[in-house]
Specification:
The structure is a single chain. This protein is α/β, with parallel strands linked by helices. The chain has a domain at 79-220: Glutaredoxin (3-Layer(aba) Sandwich). The protein has helices at residues 5-22, 37-40, 120-130, 132-136, 150-157, 180-184, 222-237, 261-267, and strands at residues 47-48, 85-90, 93-98, 107-112, 140-146, 173-175, 188-189, 194-195, 197-202, 208-214. Strand 7 (188-189) and strand 8 (194-195) form a beta hairpin. The protein starts with a helix and ends with a helix. The model is unreliable at 1-63 (pLDDT under 50).
């Protein structure tokens, strides 16, 4: 039985509206949770906390940088990090974290993990917390993200490590219950509703300079994250140099030049 012209027109309009809605990029998460103080008992109410400020001298430099800046949506590396504002748990409190508040102030290690109360996840989360002081010296904040609620984060933080919990952490755990943050960083597994183990290093200008994405069963290395951060900061302070494989602070770098690079190769 044929559809009438009126029905067909209505169907086309409906499809067009749905398509337009689905095409809108999600680059920002805003989760506003307001509960009465009595709900938390002795807990402090939701409040905003500014990023911890650390002063670090940065050398001025001139010349052409070997680091490129992308101008499109893909890949993420070289582009401005998608901003977000979301609730998090830090120091036994509910706080709000906004990524753009770190721009001009700090580097950021942003890492995603699948779920609270799982197995590989606590080994990574606590490892980054235990090494937090090393990142702090490099003027860097660490932010952990999963699709769990702030209530789940809080319960996990209040669970002892020997029982599979986290204990107190030195950085915030962000709640991405809408999954919009995970989606904007390209780590969401749609059919499972959880994130892959994505890790992003964002510089002080808000540009993503490094990313790694592991499958669910593979934990990440704090040592390699720290080394990559140190290499990034080095080449940003020395834009006429690049860091070879496995470079660590104090080791010889190289010049990105056909002739000058021979000095490095001749020395190894």
């Amino acid at each position: 039985m044929a559809c009438s012209a009126t029905s067909t027109t209505g169907l086309i309009s409906s499809i067009a509206a749905t398509t337009k809605s689905m095409a809108s990029p999600i680059c920002k998460s805003s989760q506003n949770l307001t509960l009465p103080k009595s709900f938390f008992g002795h807990r402090k109410p939701l409040q905003s906390r500014a990023p911890r400020s650390i002063s670090m001298a940065r050398g001025s430099h001139s010349g052409k940088s070997f680091i490129v800046k992308a101008s499109g949506e893909a890949p993420l590396v070289g582009n401005t990090a998608p901003d977000f504002e979301a609730e998090a748990v830090f120091d036994q409190e509910f706080i709000k974290v906004k990524l753009s508040e770190y721009i001009g102030k700090k580097y950021v290690i942003l890492f995603f993990y699948p779920l609270d109360f799982t197995f590989v996840c606590p080994t990574e989360i606590t490892a980054f917390s235990d090494r937090y002081g090393e990142f702090e010296k490099l003027n860097t904040e660490i932010l952990g993200v999963s699709v769990d609620s702030v209530f789940s984060h809080l319960a996990w933080v209040q669970t002892d490590r020997k029982s599979g919990g986290l204990g107190d952490l030195n950085y915030p755990l962000i709640s991405d219950v809408t999954k919009s943050i995970s989606k904007s960083y390209g780590v969401l597994i749609p059919d499972q509703g959880i994130a892959l183990r994505g890790l992003f290093i964002i510089d002080k200008e808000g540009v993503i300079q490094h990313s790694t994405i592991n499958n669910l069963a593979i934990g990440r290395s704090v040592d390699e994250t720290l080394r990559t951060l140190q290499a990034l900061q080095y080449v940003q302070e020395n834009p006429d140099e690049v860091c070879p494989a496995g470079w660590k602070p104090g080791e010889k770098s190289m010049k990105p030049d056909p002739k000058l690079s021979k000095e490095y190769f001749a020395a190894i």
